[in-house]
Amino acid sequence: MPISFNDIPANWRMPLYWVEVDPSKAGSLTQRQPALLVGYMLPAGVATVDVPVPIGSIAEAQQGAGLGSMLDAMAQVFFKNSASQEVWMLPIAEPTTGVAATGKISVTGAPTQAGTIYVYVAGRRVPVHMDAEDTMAIVAQSINDAIGADISMPVTAATVAADVTLTARHKGIEGNDITIAINYGGSLAGETMPAGLVIDIGTGQLAGGTGVPDLTAAISALGDEIYDYVAFPFTDSTSLDAIDMEYGFSDNGRWGWMRELYGHVFGARRGTYADLLQWGPNNNSGVISVMSMEPTMPSPPWDVASAYAAKAGRALINDPARPLQTLELTGILSPPKHQRFLLAECNALAGVGLATQGVGANNVPAIRRETTTYQKNLYDQPDDAYELVTTLATLSALLRRQKQAITSKYPRHKLADDGTRFGPGQAIVTPKIVKAELVAQYRQDEFEGLVENAKAFKDNLIVERDTTNPNRLNVLYPPDLINQLRIFAVLAQFRLQYDRGYDASVL
């Protein structure tokens, strides 16, 4: 009986017609690619600390992590950028020994006319009305009440005389990235200061926050579940090392050979050009991409990380090989025009492992280059193998497709040498059969725009039986990943007039 059945026994004698169904040649890859929001929760949240939980709406994130929590803000931004993706959140407890950042809004001059000002805290716009007769203390109380009325505000407010003290809801250094601005939109947005009113916001940021999260239990709780696009708000070296260990290429990493889970981590970091230029070379991970932010960008890094992960995931699910440039980070406020990174500065930041964004004509930041933090090889030499997010995104798609094809079509096959004469229908593979399967899959991947140069791939593909283990098949898989149109360089070699001997008739 040459045909290999899986279920019908060879010694079955009862008549007549028996069928077993085999889906091995029919299926194609259907891959879940969930996103994961990592961030602080508040004690009021009902979620369990360090345990991933799915969220289908902003309301579920607010209930689970607490109103005004970091995860509340991240969920709001994520759903603005990607409404249909499967999303989970990983609630983290604030550092127990940390200190919450604080800042102050001081009213130093009373208004002489009625009006409305707009206070921005962490990019959240709060209108505050005042009358011409209001004292400085009354204005301060109005600001305090307006901030408190926003239930998702990442700070609490308290007033003493004409001073409003803002305190981050979470302990930790992340609170130092909460910005304060007055009338950020300017006159074009109808935001002007009433006559006589004077407000001092100091440096425009909270300060004094200390402490970093302990991610050990949270990362352990991820288990072997797939989380392809991670919004990660922490950029201290301890936290980045921890998430890189989980998602990296070591034996126990998600890109390692034992787990084969893959995935990408997206973060954001605020700093001056000089600060970021010094920070960048200290990182080197192909699975982490950190978006650079100007000091005066009103939105906090966790909002930017969430928008970046959402837009990247949404695009890469559709096509992992297309560049992410020009994708808008919806819900993120841009810095003032005169305080944005110059194009030359963005180019230098991309050279030290930082992703970059630029502001479009509609004043919304958009991805310029999705650079990862990877910059050097194991010998500390410059290397661009994993420089761009699309490289690993494309490779993960190829490997998942290949794994699906092999495990579906050859789940319980025997292995024989090329040239073995076995009957048709036998569950046997040879190196040539597997090589043909891989070439066929590659041609399909080429048709779908993930790879190129199928002939070169076939010439360099090696499939052979192991010389010491007769039950093992070894494959050298050499895909040529498709590239992206990122630079269109033109030499405009103009003339004032072509030579009179030029024959225009050839046109």
UniProtKB/TrEMBL annotation:
Protein's organism: Bradyrhizobium barranii subsp. barranii
Superkingdom to which the source organism belongs: Bacteria
Protein name, UniProt field: Phage tail sheath gpL-like
InterPro entries: Phage_sheath_subtilisin, Tail_sheath, Tail_sheath_C
Pfam families linked: Phage_sheath_1, Phage_sheath_1C
Family, similarity comment: Belongs to the myoviridae tail sheath protein family.
Record-annotated Tail sheath protein subtilisin-like domain positions: 208-357
Ranges for domain Tail sheath protein C-terminal: 382-494
